[in-house]
Amino acid sequence: MGVEGQDFSPLMGSSSSSLPDHHGAPKRTGTIWTATAHIITGVIGAGVLSLAWCIAQVGWLAGPALLLVFAAVTLVSAFLLSDCSNYPDPNLGSTRIKSYTQAVNLFLGDKFGKVCLVLVDEGLYGCCIAYTITASTSLRAIQRANCYHREGHQAPCVYGSTVYMVVFGLIQVVMSQIPDLHNMQWVSVIAAIMSFAYSFVGLGLAFAQVLINGRIKGSITGVPASSTANKLWLIFQALGNIAFAYAYSIILLEIQDTLKSTPPENKVMKKASVLAIFITTFFYLCCGCFGYAAFGSLTPGNILSGFGFYEPYWLIDFANICIVVHLIGGYQIYSQPVFASIERWAVKKFPESGFVNKFYCIKHPWLPSFQTNLFNLCFRTIYVASTTALAMVFPYFNQVLGVLGALNFWPLAIYFPVEMYLVQNKIAPWTRKWIVLKIFSCICLIITLLCLIGSVQGFISVKFR
Q1: What count of Cα atoms within 13 Å lies in the side-chain half-sphere of residue 304?
Q2: Structural domain range at position 247
Q3: What is the pTM of this model?
């Protein structure tokens, strides 16, 4: 392996696709297929594993309907955001937008930009925590499945998750040295394939269980609760989990920035969003509905690691390995925008610092060469270590997903995209389109508040049980 030092002067704000970005990456080469792979990698992750539990909380009537509603809302959000990829600057012409926070800052102003920055970083950071929890759960499930196979289904087979979180964190320290999203197309393709693999396994096992049962379990109203209040808490928490399962607004513009300039990026991104959301919704409906049909009121919180299934143990092992591989890529999809944001800030803040600006070319005969520097290496390692530590402190799968989904759904997927769309298209107040979009935003705000209340209540009840 060779290391070559060089001074690196980033090219910031260039609108030409032929110029390298601030990491020296080649021109944008993304297509509808790579964008679809990025979206599927970002969307199908920890959330899909909880959907059978979500449908169990709300029942056969509302469960599938809510999945379709959230899919439609996600598409509306994606369409609004896709059109915000260029900012009409009166002095410089059109400025190509590279990130969600940059878009909010340009369209809505510095104050909204600062709020957005906090929310986006919290959302991306939270997703990385959730993925660490989910990966460790799947790794532990492999060990438990083998134990149940050897010693019987009544054996205790109790294992901790700390070691697995550390292992996942160490893998992410290495993966985090990938320069940026432009260099991650192969990671997203592999991760997307893995997501299909474990979704098919979960679907197949659930379908087989329905055949073994000889009937479809579950009810119109879902799992009974000890009181009306507890039932509402569970329903609200399920809404938060579904919101988390569809979240990808905060990485949409970063993905769009990887696309070729022709055909127009916004049109390609819309087509990729439609394709990706159609595919994910199909799998969500299949996995969620068949999971509930198989287990009814006993549906586990995580369909592949909650041990509704015990055999064939090797297939359960395979599915959980696929989950882990997918989450390795998914973690990077959500962490790379944070890395890029902090590293751009550091370059601007410390332009003369060799620690920040001196890059080294890393060459290895088995791997593609890439550039990094000491600041990037240190910051990315600390970032991964902190998400791993917090996952150890709060290892609660459904509750963490619900809180994260609730916190991010309205402000990032609805409010900012709607407001930016109104500004960009100069839609006057109290016109028909303005009223429709504002009503849409208000309804989603109410849903978000309900999700947050239920998820926080569930989190507190588990934490202090």
Answers
A1: 35
A2: 28-463
A3: 0.75
